[in-house]
Write a structure and sequence with these properties.
This protein is of the alpha+beta class. It folds into 4 domains: 20-142, Transcription Regulator spoIIAA (2-Layer Sandwich); 147-237, Immunoglobulin-like (Sandwich), CATH 2.60.40; 247-287, no CATH class; 298-431, Histidine kinase-like ATPase, C-terminal domain (Heat Shock Protein 90), CATH 3.30.565.10. The chain has 8 helices and 24 strands. The protein has helices at residues 52-59, 82-93, 108-117, 130-142, 311-324, 329-350, 391-396, 404-411; strands spanning 25-32, 38-47, 69-80, 101-104, 125-127, 147-151, 158-159, 164-172, 186-189, 194-195, 206-213, 219-225, 228-234, 236-237, 247-250, 257-260, 264-267, 274-277, 283-287, 298-305, 358-365, 369-376, 414-419, 424-431. A hairpin with a 6-residue loop joins strand 17 (264-267) and strand 18. The protein is extended.
Length: 432
């Protein structure tokens, strides 16, 4: 990130910036503090009538969150218009839900303008350095902690993505070990990933176990709960060559081989464990899975236009969903063809290829079956008056088309068609 230029000369409050550069405001977020309790927002670009909605929109989610500490770093704010200046000064005087905010590294010309426009006492403090603004918040919170954590020094050599042993102890304000401590502290780092993220088995005020971090170079490692915190510095080293994706990774929960196409978060399709794969192909477990299939119904709903050009996208979608659920490949083909035929029938017969109509599709994925319901608002179909075709005769006469209903009935385990007052509903079920 490059530091914005600083224009020489006295700024003009009424200056208008027509260039594209002055229409841009980039906002980046990061964290600081012993347990990342301070949010730092870096602003790069211009603050004016064009970009202030973006500025306000970024801050809005923090509004009303009294416990959130925010430092606005304006070191790369290159310019400010009279409109932006007035709104910023007004926000400082009337926070509108943003109580815990400090400003840091405000360019001299902008700070002078703020003082000129709004010389009264601000609700927000302005600090020359970001570190001072962060420390102001930390000093406020120190007295609120009922205990603290002490983290033993990690081994001299920590390899990124590889486990190492760490010990954490809970102490009271008098530095006495709290043997009765039964909390569940979180583990976080200021960059990279860490595993585990939650400690649940403290015994006699102590915890010792394997920890994995990712990254290269010094990073701050924190343990914290609602009443205490602790930190240490870890210097992991990246070892080996970056992985050439896609690669095969092994789930630490169940040992299943899975494919990772890039560095990202993944869920094991066998045990549901959540894990992260770094650039070197290391697997960092983040949330334990469950080898027993939970009694949970997944519901997906979408609608498409009555347009044959969308059928290919729906086929790819249903195949991806079924593959994710580990449905047998043969059954996936049957589900895909049945859904495709059903939608094609709606497009042709219910809507007469009118691409401006819509089709609603609902999917319910149970532990041992998949249910699909298709709704349309076109012409109804009388299944009793039009029986299924004689497949042998159909083939002998070499007819083209007309097998859609037969295929759906044959490939799916249950098929029902229902005519309601304002819509038609086709329900299909496939067991696995």
């Amino acid at each position: 990130m490059q530091v914005g230029r600083k224009d020489a000369g006295k700024p003009d409050l009424n200056q208008v910036f027509p260039s594209e550069e002055m229409k841009k405001l980039e906002i980046y977020s990061r964290y600081a503090g012993r347990r990342n309790e301070v949010n730092i927002l870096d602003f790069k670009g211009s603050l004016n009538i064009t970009t202030f909605n973006q500025f306000e929109g970024f801050l809005k989610p923090f509004s009303g969150e009294g416990a959130v500490k925010i430092v606005l770093n304006f070191s790369q704010l290159t310019s400010i218009s009279s409109f932006g200046l007035g709104l910023l000064a007004g926000m400082m005087h009337n926070p509108d839900g943003l109580e815990d905010v400090n400003l840091a590294e405000v360019p001299k010309k902008i700070k002078q303008l703020l003082e000129k426009v709004q010389p009264a006492e601000y609700r927000y403090k302005i600090f020359e350095h970001e570190s001072e603004a962060v420390q102001f918040f930390l000093n406020q919170q120190t007295s609120a902690y009922a205990h603290h954590f002490v983290l033993t020094s990690p081994p001299a050599e920590v390899i990124s993505g590889k486990p190492f042993i760490l010990e954490i102890a809970a102490y009271d304000a008098s530095d006495h070990l709290i043997e009765a401590y039964q909390g569940k502290p979180h583990l976080i780092v200021d960059r990279g990933m860490v595993s585990p993220t939650l400690i649940t088995d403290f015994k006699h005020g102590l915890w010792e176990g394997k920890v994995i971090v990712t990254g290269n170079g010094p990073l701050q490692f924190f343990a914290w709960d609602e009443c205490g915190w602790g930190e240490t510095t870890i210097r992991p080293k990246a070892q080996g060559e970056p992985a050439k994706f896609p690669i095969v990774v092994v789930c630490s929960g169940c040992g299943k081989n899975n494919i990772a196409g890039k560095t990202d978060f993944f869920r094991c399709i066998q045990c549901n464990e959540i894990y992260f794969v770094d650039w070197f192909g290391h697997v960092v477990p983040l949330k334990p899975g469950n080898t027993k299939r939970a009694d949970f119904v997944k519901h997906l709903e979408f609608k498409i236009p009555s347009d044959v050009n969308y059928l290919n996208h729906v086929r790819n979608f249903i195949m991806g969903i079924c593959s994710e659920e580990k449905i047998d490949e043969e059954k996936i083909t049957q589900i895909e063809m049945s859904l495709d035929e059903a939608l094609a029938n709606v497009i042709e017969h219910a809507y007469s290829f009118d691409a401006y109509q819509e089709i609603r599709v609902n999917l319910w994925i149970y532990a041992h079956k998949l249910e699909i319901v298709i709704k349309d608002y076109g012409r109804s179909f009388d299944s009793e008056r039009l029986p299924l075709p004689d497949i042998k005769k159909h083939i002998e006469e070499r007819r083209i088309g007309g097998l859609g209903r037969y295929l759906i009935k044959t490939l799916m385990d249950e098929v029902t068609y229902h005519k309601a007052l304002h819509c038609n509903e086709l329900r299909m079920i496939k067991r696995f």
